[in-house]
Amino acid sequence: MDNFLILKTLDKAARRIENTEALENISGDILSSKSIVLNFPSFMDGRAYSQARRLRRAGYKGTLIAAGDVRADQARQYARVGFSAIFSKNNFDGAISQNDLTRFTDHYQSSASDEQSIYHKRFPNTAAKESGGGAF
Amino acid sequence: MYQYDAFDHEILQKRIEEFKSQVKRRLSGELSEEEFKPLRLMNGVYLQLHAYMLRIAIPYGTFSSDQMRKFAHIARKYDRGYGHFTTRQNIQYNWPRLTDIPTILEELAEVELHAIQTSGNCIRNTTADQLAGVAKHEIADPRGYAEIIRQWSTFHPEFTYLPRKFKIAITGDTHDRAAIRFHDIGLEIVKNKSQEIGFKVLVGGGLGRTPIIGTVIKEFLPEKHLLSYLEAILRAYNLDGRRDNKYKARIKILVQETGIETYRTTVEQEWKEILKEGRTDLPLNAQIRILEHFTLPKYSHKGVTSYNFSDFYAADSDFARWINHNMHDHKIENYAAVTISLKPLKGIPGDISAEQMDGIASLADLCSLGEIRATHEQNLVFPHVFKDDLPALWRDLEKIGLATANHGLISDIIACPGLDYCALANARSIPIAQEIAQRFDDPERMEEIGELKIKVSGCINACAHHHVGHIGILGVDKKGVEAYQLMLGGSADEKASIGKITGASFDAEEIIDAVEATVDLYLTLRQDNERFIDTYNRVGMAPFKEVLYG
Amino acid sequence: MTIAIPKRPLRRRVKKEKKNYNLALTANHLFSGKVVYFTGSGWANLLHDAALSLDGDSLISQAQNYIKNESFVGLELIKIDKLYNQLIPLTTKEKIRLSGPSIIYN
Ligand code: SF4
pLDDT 10s per residue in chain C (106 long)? Predict the structure, then answer.
């Protein structure tokens, strides 16, 4: 999570995907985008978390940006489902989000990055792939 | 019982740290109320009618005597000397100060308790059969699976801002004491032909504004795929659930609107993808490690007193009455589970004082292997009582006012906090429950009436499950006056049904008379040993309408 | 100060809505959660000390000066009746909010 970015501007070429898209099928076109912006119209509207999850699962490797009503206290969640950046015009408290990102060392779910879940750590011989929980 | 390992402790500590910092930032003005509110809600802190309310989870309803002592301590030190057990195996305090809450959470963490996800649009405390692990005809103990769900759902990054709250209930018995048909997801442990354990999965049940009985989405889900399948259900709901209207946002509406077939197809498709990744279901050894915590305890009994159960039962009719109503069959010979009713006459359903909590804790140590259960009917259960200990236990319970012999009877009423505490209420629930109990306060009459479940909610949110009461009462606001709708014929168990409204609402006095008229009519109509609900199902609404409205 | 809440029926207390009601502004203290009423120059625990006005908006805007860091939350205007010189909230909800739960834990 070291390279989680807080963006003040958005690349014009970034591809926007509305959060009404369930992304059940993801085209090669989307997968080859350099950066994709997913929207949180309100921070309470959590659809983009699942969208991010699906994009990463489909093999999307580019920058995945959370935009809209994004909040510092939510940074960990963005990162753990596969976002690599936050875009916010507001005064985004980077210190808070940094705390949030690093606060928990262990998780009950494995995540987009290749870290191991608690279940894996409870049994050091388990392969990472089988670590269980599966936030990603 | 489950015992935290270093990882569980660490996570809880970090969470407290985080919440502490959020409270601090709020108090200093760094966070606005608008920003803070969802953060405090994620930790069970509500602002109610009079004050803050803190809701603490009792995962799947199982807790220890030490945890009970902590509840007592918190009631005394940070609250007004009492607590309230809810219908979702939580305990609530009605008067904590926001500034004390981080400290309260630290105290709770010492005994492995928390308030995580006890509110907010996330996966809430998974509830379970209160007789889990000891019920005589149980297929398997559901609590290990509930603990697996607890861990998986704790801070699940993807499912913290769902369209609406999400409640899961699980039972290991065909007789459903956990109301699984009225949860967003209901799980029933079943065995397939080859005697393998799995789950029958129900989805889209619920109460509230639109009461719906859950539908089976999967007849047999192999045990090892529990989490992957839950994840598929949740993901489909997170993406497709309605967010335009709060009252249509629960999964039950999605299932109704898309139809179970379509929804099932979506879920199965997603499930396949999740299985391909193979990263969600627990590795077998991790699963076993959790389930191991729930093996039957060693019942090596040392006898508290020298009573003989059968002799005492024959000799003391009050004790016999308590046994007849409050005792439950146990897996192990000479053992019993027993309900400790939190519905004494003039009491507040689910409320318990700090002194009573301490009393219960000591008694649990003495004769229930230190273990206690909270039920969705707002009572407690001692799950492991040696039968010969029951007389002494009963006497000691009497001393603390908790030996009421009314489990399942008309005075064992579920009531939500209602307008006395709750900011959302239309009308008071507690006084109605108290007056009904008072009206029928005669052990013989109660016994004559037999099993009758009354549930009183103060508003349409249905925290007291009024739709599934044999008799349900719903508080409504009639031009500023408290009024009550009457419902008949609901049932929360495996023969699930939703009560029907009798007709025009009653005022607070009339509703008590209306309940009495209903019960009296039942007594004249009943055949053989029919329970109220059986008679109602046989004769229907018409005769009741007749006697109520003429 | 407590105001006895009639045991029931509550019907007698509720009068037909008049057009103009005296309004008071209530809130909860952020730190303690305690119920408070706006006095015109601060906050008090007693409804008795509340500032009354027919104009709710002006009450709210006056109160802004006394809510540093949003230390009072859940602001709400409530209708007030005057009875024998006592201030009484109109709705059952606010009556209970003022004097505490109508049932006492025993
Ligand atoms: S049913 Fe309504 S009044 Fe009762 S506790 Fe729930 S929200 Fe409050």
Answer: 344 444 444 344 444 555 678 999 999 999 999 999 999 999 999 999 999 999 999 999 999 999 988 899 999 999 999 888 899 999 999 999 999 999 875 5
Share in percent of chain A as helix, strand, coil (round to 5)? 30, 15, 55
* Closest Cβ opposite residue B29 in set C8, C70, C74: C70
Instruction: Establish if B97 touches chain A: CB-CB under 8 angstroms.
Output: no
Q: What is the DSSP letter of C49?
A: G
| Probe residue for ligand 1, chosen from B87, B124, B351, B422 as the CB with the greatest number of ligand atoms within 8 Å | B422
Instruction: Inspect the structure and tell me whether chains B and A have 3 or more CB pairs less than 8 Å apart.
Output: yes
Residue spans of chain B under pLDDT 70: 302-305
Residues paired with C83 in a beta bridge? C86
CA B330/CA B363 separation, integer angstroms: 19
For testing the chain C interface, which of B26, B45, B104, B426 should be mutated: the one with the most C CBs within 10 Å? B26
Q: If you measure from the C-alpha of residue A42 to the centroid of ligand 1, how many angstroms do you get, rounded to a whole number?
A: 26
Query: In terms of domains, do A132 and A70 share one?
Result: no
Q: What is the pLDDT of residue C10?
A: 39
The residues pairing with B166 across neighbouring beta strands, listed in sequence order, are B123
How far is the C-alpha of A132 from the C-alpha of B287, rounded, in Å?
A: 10
Mean pLDDT of A33-60: 96
Residues A35 and A91 in one domain: yes
- Element housing C83 (H / E): strand C72-83
A92 and A112 in a common domain: no
* DSSP-H helix ranges across B241-385: 251-258, 260-277, 284-291, 309-315, 317-326, 354-367
Going from the Cα of B419 to the center of ligand 1, the distance in angstroms, rounded, reads 8
Q: Which of B157, B243, B283 sits opposite A132 (nearest CB)?
A: B283
- Which residue range is the domain that position A93 belongs to? 5-104
In the block, which residue shows the tokens 């400790």? B340
Q: What is the pLDDT of residue C11?
A: 41
Q: Which of B27, B36, B45, B50 to mutate to test the interface with C (most CBs of C within 10 A)?
A: B50
Task: Check A118 against B283: CB less than 8 A apart.
Answer: no
- The three-state secondary structure class of B259 is coil
Do A35 and A89 fall within a single domain? yes
Please tell me the pTM assigned to this model: 0.94
Render B104-116 in DSSP notation, one character per residue.
Answer: HHHHHHHTT-B-T
- Residue A62 sits in the same domain as residue A122: no
Distance B416 CA to ligand 1 centre (A): 6
